[in-house]
Amino acid sequence: MSENAKENSVLASASAGSESTHMAAANVPVSAPATVPNTTSGEISASATRTVPTINNGQGNQNSVSDTSAPLLHSQIKGIASRYVASGISVFLAGLFFATALIWAPLIYLPVAFVFIFTSVGLPYLFNIPSPRNLQITLAIAAVLIFAGSTQSLRYLMFATVVSYNLLFIIEMFRVAKERRRIEQLSAGALGISLLACAALWALIPDLARWGIGLILLVMVCTTVSALLYAFITRSVLLVAILNAILTGLAGAAVIGMAWWVGLIAGLAGVLAFSVVRSAFFDTVQNKPILPILSFASMPFAILGVIAIVVAYA
What we know:
The chain is mainly α. It has helices spanning 3-26, 70-103, 109-126, 132-150, 154-174, 179-200, 213-229, 237-256, 260-285, 290-313, and strands at 34-37, 49-52, 55-56, 62-63. The strands form two sheets. Strands 1-2 form a two-stranded antiparallel ribbon. The protein has a two-stranded antiparallel sheet with strand order 3-4. Strand 3 (55-56) and strand 4 (62-63) form a beta hairpin. The protein is globular, with a radius of gyration of 32 Å. The chain starts with a helix and ends with a helix.
C-alpha cells in the first residue's frame, strides 16, 4: 500500500471516531429546568422563580439541585399564625380591660392579673434565658408582692417594686453562673419587674376622679384598633395605624366628654406601644410556642399603664 493510501485511511478513521462522539453526546437527554420558588422574608412570591438545570447522565440518574420549599413554606405559615395569635391575645386583654372597667371598677384587677401571669411565665422564653424556671419563680414572687401593693396605694406599690428589685439582685448574686449569663438574667428580670409595676398602675386609675373609667375605655378602644392593624405586615402599617388610632382617640374623647388632647395621647400611645414591642421582639416570637407570644402580646398593656396614670393625674 502506498503512502498516500495510508494517510487517507488514517484520516477516514479519525473522522468516523469524531462523528460517533458527537452523536453520543447528542443522545444525552437534558430535562426541562426545574422551577424553585424564590421567597422573601415576609411574603411568598408566587411569580418570582429561579431555574435550576437538571441534567440526565444517560443512565437514568438525574443530577439536580434539590431545593425543597416545603419547610420554608411551613415556617412562613407559622410566622403568619403567630401574628394572628398575638393580635387575638391583645384584643382579648383590651376587651377584658374594657368590660371590667365598664361593669365594675374593682374588676380591673382581673385583666391586670392576666398581664401579670403572661409576663411572669412567658418573658424568660421571650428572651431565650438559659434558666427560665429560676427567672419565672423570681417574677412570680415579684408579681405577688406588686399585686398586693397595688391593692393599697401607689406608695405601697412602689415599695413592693423596690423589694422585688432587691430580691432579684440577691438571687442572682448567689446563683452560680457565668458573668454573661448573670447579666442576661438580671436584664430580663429587671425588665419583667418594671413591666409588672407598670401594669399594676392600671388598678389605681379607677380611683382617680378626673378621668378614671373613661380613660381606660378610651385607651382600650385605641389599643384594639392598633392590635388589629398590626396583625398584618405592610410597609404602611405604622402610618395607617397612627391615622386610625388618632381618629379613634379624638372621636372617643368627644363621645365620652374628655379633652381632645387626652384622645390624641391615647391614640398615639397605643400605636407606639405596639410598634416598639413589635420591632423589638417580633422576630423572637415567630415560629415559637405560645408562652413567648403571651408575654409579647401583653407587653404593650404594661407600657400603656404608665402613660395612662400620667394622663389620669394631669
